[in-house]
Amino acid sequence: MPENFIRENYAINLKGAKILIVDDTSENLNLLRKVLAKEGYELFVANSGEKAIKIATRAVPDLILLDVMMPVMDGFETCRRLKEDPIFKEVPVIFITAKNQTEDMVEAFQAGGVDFINKPFRHEEVLVRVRTHLQTYFLLKQQERLVMMAHQAQKIADQARLAAEAANRAKSIFLAKMSHELRTPLTAILGYTDLLEEEVEDFGYDNILPDLYKIQNAGKSLLAIVSDILDLAKIEADKMEISFTDFEVHKLVSEVTAKILPAITSRNNTLVVDSPKDLGTMYSDHYKLSQILSNLLDNANRFTPSPGTITMTVSRYAIQSSGISANTSSEWLRFCISDTGTGIKPEMIEKIFQAFVQVDDSYTRSHDGAGLGLTICDRLSQTLGGRVYVSSEEGKGAIFCLNLPTRVPENSVVGQVEVAR
């Protein structure tokens, strides 16, 4: 996403952000208030820890600038008391202090602070640190709201599975709209965190990077779930577009396995690929086939404890023309992906391709995802004129085989072809 688009349409507006300034010295309070007022922040001031807690409880600031050296209750103790309240758990606290010893910095972070500014402070440093932490805080709040929206969408999907076929189609249309609404701000947030990461690194605020990485990882996971919901909704609403092209099968397999290999090796698993170079070409949807194979490989990787082995075997074969549609090729390709993972219970195999059916809640949730990957594989394979089959023994891994015709005319009716297992 272009940087200008992100900044113009999804840049975080910090004007009106509430900042509480706490310092027992009136000169410091006035100076900080003067510096920050120019940025359009809503400012609150307190000259003691006790007053700071009272004001914070009433105003609920978005950021707190907190002096360390204060009588009665110092800044560290004030911060600890504030953090005891869940309301202030994520509110960034920046300490202002003349102390610069390592033990002082450690105590500042242990008390719940996210940063500190040394006295005497520079105006530019105060503005940059405040702006950076406010941006991070608001991004986290946006992420939480999107997660709540996604949970609501998932609950709606679970309820919709109990409805009749007509209600199921209406549900799919709703999910498509909901997913569009979620995907756009999610993509913008991910793009904006990339920009913010560059700014943080440029200013040397490495202590903020872990929070940014959390935002990025959560956003990517959520975006993947939203994309799955949107794809399935399009399929069920008969709005999935298919683009047929000629392409080399071996080259496609190489591209797919190259993309998934880092994820497999990161889990200390091994990928074995048996894909002859003479597999030839096929006339199908390059992107959809890549999506099916990627989902099957990812599924095998997630359910294979390390160190394990995932094997992908590709072969070309011919079948008798009898019983096959005249519009469908008698040349077929079989993509088999096997693993040494946990396997699948017999009663789960019958349900594993059903839409929005959690075959085993604990099983699915312990391995992440929304449980839609295999459903999408099955529906897309039928759209391309083939099928996905699975065989497994619990505790001995699983084998998923995708059978597809090498050539399906664009004007033919695909999705109803029975193939040999």
Please explain how this structure is put together:
The chain has 3 domains: 3-121, Response regulator (Rossmann fold), CATH 3.40.50.2300; 126-236, Methane Monooxygenase Hydroxylase, Chain G, domain 1, CATH 1.20.58; 245-405, Histidine kinase-like ATPase, C-terminal domain (Heat Shock Protein 90, 2-Layer Sandwich), CATH 3.30.565. It has 13 helices and 12 strands. The chain has helices spanning 3-10, 26-37, 49-59, 75-83, 102-110, 123-160, 165-203, 209-236, 249-266, 286-302, 346-349, 361-365, 373-383; strands at 18-22, 42-46, 63-67, 93-97, 115-118, 245-248, 270-274, 281-284, 309-318, 331-339, 387-392, 398-405. Strands 2-1-3-4-5 form a 5-stranded parallel sheet, with helices on both faces. Strands 7-9-10-12-11 form a 5-stranded mixed sheet, covered by helices on one side. A two-stranded antiparallel sheet has the order 6-8. A hairpin with a 5-residue loop joins strand 11 (387-392) and strand 12 (398-405). The two termini are 43 Å apart. Mean pLDDT is 81; it is low at 5-10, 322-327, 358-367 and 412-421.
